[in-house]
Amino acid sequence: MKTTSNLNLPTLLIALLATLPVQALAADVETPPSESVPSQPQTTDTKPTQPESMESSPKPEPLPEIPWDFSPYRVLVWVVADSARASSDAISPTLHEFLDRDFSSIWRVTIADAPMAVRAAASRDMDAMSYDMLTSADPVLAVKRDHKDAVRIRIASNVGEFVNTIYSTKNQIDGVIERGGQRGDSTLAGVDKRLKPIDGDASKVQDLWADANTEAILASRGMAVRLDNPEAKIVTLPIAGLVSETIEQYDKVFIVRATVDSMPGRIDVVELDTLMRYFGPIASSSIAANQPIGEAVGHAVIKAFAPVVRIDDAGQKTAVGLLRASGLIMDEDSPAMIHVDDVLQPMTRKNDRNGNPFMIGAMDWAYLAVTEYKDRNVSMDFYAGRAGGLQGRKNARTFRTALKVRPMEDETLLRLHAQGDVDFPLIGYEIYEKELKSTAMTFIGRTDWNGRLNIQKTDDPLRLMYVKNGGAVLARLPMVPGLHPTAVADLQGDDLRLQAEAYIRGVQDAIIDLVAVRELYKARIRMRLERGEMKEAEELMEALRNQPSNEALATDMGKKQAVFLKLLGTRNANQKRKVDEMFITTRELLSKHINPILVRDLEKDVLAAKKNGGKLPVKKPKDDEEES
Fold it and tell me: Compositional bias (Low complexity) at which positions (predicted)?
C-alpha cells in the first residue's frame, strides 16, 4: 500500500506562484515562459499513462510547472521491513507527522512498500545498490542495433510496426499483457501481435539473440543490458508496475530497510537522487525503547537527505547555482538549507534524443565549497583533480546539479594504483594536504604495500590532497573523508621517470668523474714530457684515448632515451617532456666538458716533444716575448 501526504502550500503563496513565469526545473538553460519543460527527462514511451493500481506503482500528486526555487521535492519512501509493524501502512501516520515538522512546504511525500526487486536488492547489500540493480527485473523489448529499421524505433509502437517477431517465454508474455491491461492497453501499443512464445526458459531466449534471424526479444532489463554482438536497443513497454517508470516520477527516492524483529531495532536508509541516478551514503539509526518506528525512520531519512543546487553558471574555478525549493524554506536551520562552508558534489547528466542518459553521475575527484548564500543563489569555489570541470556548452539535454555531501564514516581508505591496472599498486607514494586558501602543505603519510592510506575526517570536510613521488607532484585529489568507505585513484605512475632520472644522475656523475680523470691524465702526460720521459707519456696518452669519449656516451644516452620514451608511450606527455629535458641538459653538460680539444692539445705537445729530442720545449713567458 502507499500513502501520500497532503503538504499544501499556503493560499497566498500559491497565488504568488501563479503570477510567476514557468521555468525549467533541472535543465541548465533558459526556457521561454511559453514552453513546458519537465523536471525529469521524458521516457521513450509517449503513450498516455493510465491510472495504475496502488499496489503496483505509487504515483505522486501532480505538480504544476513552477520555478525551481519554488518547486517542492517529490519524495518517495520505499519501505523494506522484516515485520508488519514496520510496513508502510503501520509507520505512515507517524512518519508523515515527523517529516512535516521540517518539510511541510518543501516535500510532497509518498510512502509505499517497496517492489520485490527493490526488496531483494535492499536485503542483500545496500552499499552495492545501483539503478541497474533496482530496475533489472523490469520487462523490456530488446531490439538488435543492426536491425534495418533500428534508427526508426524509439517507442513500443515503433517495435510493433517495424519488427516482425519478438521471442520470449509464455509466462513472460502473459505477464506483460496482464500488466498492460492494468494500464489500460493489453495490446501493448501493438506489440502483442508480434510476441511469439518459445519452449524453454529465459536462458533459451537469451541464446536466440545469437541467431541472425532474431530481430528482438522480450526479456528483463538486467538481461537486455548484457546482450552483445550486437548490442540491444532497449525499449520500455507501456505496462504497470515498472520500477524504472516509478523512479522517474520522483526527485528523491529513500529506500528504508527496517529491522525490528531483533533487538535493538535498526533503520538503514539510502537516498537515490533520481535525476542523476546517484545513491548517497547509508544513514543509520537505532530504534530507542518505546520510540515509534516511524519517528526512527524519519531521523534516518533526514540524515540521508541531500539538498540539490542547480548549477546555472560555471567558470574554471567558481560556480553559481540556485537551491531547490529555497523560496519555500522558512527556517534557516532547515535540513533543506545550504550554508557557507558546506561542501557539494557536482554531477552531470547528458541525454540522447530519447531522453536516456549516455553520460550520468558524479564528477570524479571534484567538489564545490559554498562561499556565499544570498537571495536563494549559491556561490561556490570549484576544486577538481582532473581537467574538464563544469564548463561546457549549454543545451536542453544537459543537466548540471550539485548535492550536499553527508560524510557518515570517520575515515576514507585512499588507494592508488597504476592507470589501467588495478593490480599495480603505487607503493610508497607521499600524500600531502594543501590548505584551500594558502600554499601551505602538510605531510600526511605514505601509501603502504598495497597503495593504501587512511585519510581521517576533520572539522573541515573538504581536504585537498596532493600525491608526490620523487619530489614531483603527480595528482591533486580533493576529498571528503568519511563520505565513502574507500576512494580509488588510477594514476599515471612515474616509476619510469624516476628510472630515467636515476640513469641520468648516474651519467652526470660519470661525466664529473671523467672530467677529473682526464685532467689528471693531462697533468701526468705533460709532466712526463717536460722530464723527457717520452715512452711513459705515450703510454699515458694511449690510456687517455681509451677513456669513454663524447660520442660513446652520447650514443648510449640516445639508446636509453629511446627506450624510456617508448615505454612511456603517448599516455603521459608531461613525463615525456621531463625525461626529454633531463637528457637535453645532460647532453649539454657532456658537450661542454667532454670534448676532443684536450686530447688534440696533448697530441700537439707529444709531437713538439719528439721534434725537440723527446722533451717538451719550455715555453717562454709572454712578458719575455713582448720585450724581445
Answer: 38-57
Q: Cα separation of 181 and 52, whole Å?
A: 10
CA distances (Å), origin 532, targets 330, 523, 524, 545, 611: 105, 14, 12, 21, 12
CA distances from 373 to 87, 308, 340, 447, 590 (A): 40, 14, 7, 38, 61
Would you say 497 and 503 are in contact if contact means Cβ atoms under 8 Å apart? no
List, in sequence order, every residue forming a beta bridge with 366; answer none if it has no partner.
384
| Span 29-50, pLDDT tens digits | 333 333 333 333 333 333 333 3
Q: CA-to-CA distance for 444 and 465, rounded, in angstroms? A: 9
Integer Cα distance of 70 and 323 in angstroms? 9
Find the range with the poorest average confidence among 118-132, 416-430, 475-489.
Answer: 416-430
Q: How far apart are CA 451 and CA 282, in angstroms?
A: 26
6 grid coordinates:
497532503
- Taking 3-state DSSP, the helix, strand and coil percentages for the chain, each rounded to the nearest 5, stand at 35, 25, 40
For residues 138 and 220, what is the distance between their CA atoms, to the nearest angstrom? Answer: 5
DSSP strands (E only) in 419-480: 430-434, 441-446, 452-456, 463-469, 472-479
Residue 231 has pLDDT above 50, yes or no: yes
Distance CA 239, CA 225 (A): 19
| Averaged pLDDT score across all residues of the chain | 85
Query: Would you state the pLDDT for residue 64?
Result: 60
Return the pLDDT at 530.
87
Give yes or no for a contact between 375 and 62, defined as CB atoms under 8 angstroms apart.
Answer: no
Q: What are φ and ψ of residue 129, in 5° steps? A: -65, 140
CA distance 334 to 101: 10
Q: Which grid cell sits at 495?
A: 616509476
Q: Strand pairing partners for 472?
A: 469
- End-to-end CA distance of the chain: give it in Å, rounded: 122
Mean pLDDT of 267-278: 97
| Burial status of residue 360 (CB atoms within 10 A of its CB: 0-12, 13-18, 19 or more) | middle
- pLDDT tens digits, 337-388: 999 999 999 999 999 888 889 999 999 999 999 999 999 999 999 999 877 7
Residues 6+ apart with CB under 8 A from 226: none
CB atoms within 10 A of CB 149: 13
Query: Is the pTM above the cut of 0.90?
Result: no
